[in-house]
Amino acid sequence: MNLTLRIWRQKNAQSEGALVEYEARDVSSDMSFLEVLDMVNENLIAAGQEPIAFDSDCREGICGTCGLVINGVAHGGLRGTTVCQLHMRHFKDGDEITVEPWRARAFPLLKDLIVDRSALDRIIQAGGFISVNTGGAPDGNAIPVPKVDSDRAMDAAACIGCGACVAACKNASAMLFVSAKVSHLNLLPQGKPEKNRRVLNMVKAMDAQGFGNCTVLGSCEAVCPKEISLDFIAKMNRDYGSAILKGR
Ligand code: SF4
Ligand code: FES
């Protein structure tokens, strides 16, 4: 198929950006969306022009590095799918496709389709860990974990930190991401000793990074490639309220 791509080009944070039109010809339905960008870039390089800057790493939907807004929807709108796993069979010949970066105050643009998502790393630094002394490997069954808790913790741990939830939210809220990271550890026995401190510190870090407030619109859940549930936001709010009442 032949496609028309309108791609956001911007030299750096200081310069003005604009949508620039490119033709992608002979696109196979088996290609991923990022492979189409690779193809466009090969043609740009062959013509002596600057390739389009975009992020990717694993291209298997597990690292959270890729992230594009395609036709106005973070990750392109295919339920539970990252843009690196979005294949061209979901498009048709002659389609006109607009490609833009994540847009949020806390994610300053670096170049073209790449934004700085280190604000999410700073939230993790504030509490996304457990403190244990290392030593010999403990027996795997030494700490019993209720199945229902381990399943929920695993659901929360599926968050890959892509930031699509922020990009999709009109408040640019990071609550879905933060609630997944808080809940993943707070649900498990190993995370309980630092439970209160974790939720308070991570929410404080989230606010300090300039993310907006959650007004429960649900657009985050709709675009999340790991289908993280809004229930985790409710759980984090309960953990937060309890930590405040306990005064720590
Ligand atoms: S909650 Fe979902 S959309 Fe948000 S960072 Fe995690 S995986 Fe990405
Ligand atoms: S490149 Fe790793 S999730 Fe897309």
What hetero molecules are bound to the protein chains? iron/sulfur cluster, FE2/S2 (inorganic) cluster
The sequence of SSEs as H and E is EEHEEEEEHHHHHHH
Structural class: alpha+beta
Low-confidence stretches: none
What this model shows, in words?
By secondary structure, the chain is α+β, with helices and mostly antiparallel strands. It is 34% helix and 11% strand. The chain has eight helices and seven strands, in the order E-E-H-E-E-E-E-E-H-H-H-H-H-H-H. The strands form two sheets. It has a five-stranded mixed β-sheet. It has a two-stranded antiparallel sheet with strand order 6-7. A hairpin with a 2-residue loop joins strand 3 and strand 4. Helix 2 packs antiparallel against helix 6. The chain is elongated and about 60 Å long. The protein starts with a strand and ends with a helix. The model has no long low-confidence stretch (mean pLDDT 96). The structure holds iron/sulfur cluster and FE2/S2 (inorganic) cluster (FES).
